[in-house]
């Protein structure tokens, strides 16, 4: 059957971390664009927690893209103002049609 192109209706920018050091020789991650992909985004769950003394919503998201092997845990996907961190990759091993990314929507304080 195949992955319907119409279901991939969001354009994402992919980034990988590149380590650099700041003036105090401390790690200071720099995010480097590695490309863009068409994807579908589904918000799967959300929960409230306290982070840095404030109530914060943690949103779990599933992002589906065409099958590829170069997206790994720790990368970021950006759609508009939303920044997602990839926490796991779930490939379609049998048919190699898609790759599901288990992601977390970053809060503005985390970006």
Automatic annotation (TrEMBL):
<dbReference type="InterPro" id="IPR008767">
    <property type="entry name" value="Phage_SPP1_head-tail_adaptor"/>
</dbReference>
<dbReference type="InterPro" id="IPR038666">
    <property type="entry name" value="SSP1_head-tail_sf"/>
</dbReference>
<protein>
    <submittedName>
        <fullName>Head-tail adaptor protein</fullName>
    </submittedName>
</protein>
<feature type="region of interest" description="Disordered">
    <location>
        <begin position="1"/>
        <end position="27"/>
    </location>
</feature>
<dbReference type="Pfam" id="PF05521">
    <property type="entry name" value="Phage_HCP"/>
</dbReference>
């Amino acid at each position: 059957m195949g992955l319907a192109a119409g279901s991939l209706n969001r354009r994402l920018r992919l980034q990988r971390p590149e380590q650099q050091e700041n003036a105090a020789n401390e790690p200071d991650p720099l995010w480097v664009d590695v490309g863009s992909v068409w994807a579908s985004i589904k918000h799967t769950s959300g929960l409230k927690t306290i982070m840095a003394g404030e109530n914060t919503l943690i949103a779990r998201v599933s992002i589906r893209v065409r099958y590829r092997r170069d997206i790994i845990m720790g990368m970021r996907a950006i759609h508009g103002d939303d920044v997602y961190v990839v926490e796991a990759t779930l490939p379609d091993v049998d048919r190699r049609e898609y790759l599901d990314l288990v992601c977390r929507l970053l809060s503005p304080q985390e970006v």
